[in-house]
Write a structure and sequence with these properties.
There is one protein chain. This protein is of the alpha+beta class and 70 residues long. Helices cover 11% and strands 26% of the residues. It has one helix and four strands, in the order E-E-H-E-E. The chain has one helix spanning 34-41, and strands at 3-7, 13-17, 58-61, 66-69. The chain has a two-stranded antiparallel sheet with strand order 1-2. A two-stranded antiparallel sheet has the order 3-4. It is elongated and about 50 Å long. It starts with a strand and ends with a strand.
């Protein structure tokens, strides 16, 4: 995998080229790499899911191996 792409919830992005920057020091998510960024963006879901509820509100049911609301 040559590139590492990250998109955060606020839509900021990071793109790293592991051929030239193995330690990910230089974010190259810019206009020069727009074509590469667009290829990654195609795989990002359009709808973001709701946040995961706090586990304090759930109890694990070991018999059915599921989470149940308290």
């Amino acid at each position: 995998n040559r590139y590492h792409f990250i998109q955060y919830k606020d839509s900021t992005e990071e793109l790293y080229d592991h051929f030239t920057d193995k330690k990910e020091w230089h974010n190259i998510a810019d206009d020069e790499h727009a074509e590469i960024l667009e290829k990654f963006r195609m795989h990002i879901p359009k709808k973001i899911t709701d946040d995961i509820p706090e586990t304090a509100h759930y109890k694990f049911d070991y018999q059915n191996y599921t989470w149940k609301k308290n």
